[in-house]
Write a structure and sequence with these properties.
19 helices; four-stranded mixed β-sheet; 599 residues; four-stranded antiparallel β-sheet
Length: 599
Amino acid sequence: MILAALNRLYDRLAEHGEVPSFGYSVENISFVLIIDRQGRPIEFSDLRRQDGNKARPAAMRVPTNPEISRTSGVYANPLWDKTSYAIGCSAKPSARMASEHQAFTARQKELFGATDDESLIALLAFLDRWHPDHAADLPGYSDDVLDSNVVFRIDGSRAYIHDAPSAQKTWQDSLESEHETLAQCLVTGEQAPLASGHPRIRGVDGAQTSGGALISFNSNAYLSYGLSKEATAGLSKPTVFGYATALNHLLRRDADNRHRLRIGDTTTVFWADARDAKAAEAAEGFFAAANEPPSDEQENQRIHDVLVQIAKGRPLADLSADIDPDTRMYVLGLAPNAARLSIRFWCTERLDTLMQRYADHWHDLALDPPAWAGIAPAVWRLVNATAPSRDGKTKSDDVSPLLAGETMRSILNGQRYPRALLTQTVMRFRNDGDIGSPSATGRMRIALCKAVLQREARLANPHSPTSEIAMSLDRDSIHPGYLLGRLFAELENAQRTALGRVNASIKDRYFGSASATPASVFPILVRNAQHHLSNIRKGDKPGLAGLIEGEIGHIVDGLGGTFPKHLRIEDQGRFAIGYYHQREARFAKKAEEPASAVV
């Protein structure tokens, strides 16, 4: 199904000229070597564009054999290649370099030896007379030329030699003349030449720079019915070229490519299948914004408003006129696996169904007051909150690789979030104490706890409104974990009101043990709170002691006067939510009431 969907995408892209035709690929080309009509080299011309402090090569369509993936062997490309092949020069000269240049020369003569095209004849003459030692003497030469990809052009002409009509025809004839085995393609069902190799897929973060294989066979254990290697897959040449070209197009690292996302160790691509290209682009833009919130406030608010309306039951087609309700979205998550690629997840669904699941995701995360402005942060930011926090900052390298992919899969499928998401978040509360406000990471952690518990409760009892976990302070909740979190926040309030800021508050010292083993900590904390309340009564706000004492008494009554010995991991999540709600309610009350009313 994945290959068939990618193949249809290739047809759509090829119709608009966005991807190369069969026998060509888009490669990074840095320099062009200009020669005259007698084959004499003239100069190197730099094709790179400046992007900040970096010079980036030009993306150029060049002829390639789609069935050849050059790894350790020697194989020359037609009319272009890296400098060790094209001109016999490299920053690290070796004995292999000479054989590579010989292979390049032999390949061009084999393909174009019988041509009458002037530009191709000039190139063959150049290869006959060229000596690698002359490269450094040419104008435009620098160390940047070495090991970059080079194409050729005749002096005075604006076209590259590989774009000459006779060169293209000769190349296509050579591809069609290869010995072919006809068979039924497993994707299209048509009788077609069977592919003997699969192009490498490039652009997956963490994979080999030369690319990874999506389909490969390296052992006889994977073969069957007497078929050898790629014949086991049963895919035609056009299908293999189509799926690989479309996937490499989605994975390209251009700054304007919004089809590519990085989530943990998973590189995610998505595309739409709509009634026309305009509807597909609109759907892809909307989906991209839902996954990576735009920095533009108006656009962010627009996506937020749409998700709010979807959560209330309004169909997506009524909210955005440019989106076709029949649009189908495809989402593919890829991760590196040595020389191959692993598929982390694969989702195909209608856009309105996916947006309903994103609205559910947003609702599960929602807190009051909001933990962030606009729509929910991107998944990679949410998952980063499970990493160690240093001064409120986290690093994606510290995130569990599998956790990010599993979280994305749960959002796409509308299933439970991975339980490891809750476990990792609770562990971080204990380890670095970054809980709730004012840190953005702390607020995201609370939202993650609430989302995991909220979704589990909702899926377990889909028609019960009592399964909802409140977004703000729930004074009617009798859940021990939630009440203990609220109590801990009030005990901390008593300490801060009595002593002001201290080097190590009860949150710094006891949050972990209070949330895991309440019976071992809370009796001590409640006794100490009596001293804090006594100090408050002796100060200039004696009435505040009464309010705090009343709140503590109300919460303890809800607990029945006893403290549990242990709390399960989900109850520890409720503990953190209760702590956050109680604190935020206190801050909200102070903001609403005039200063004189707070005694």
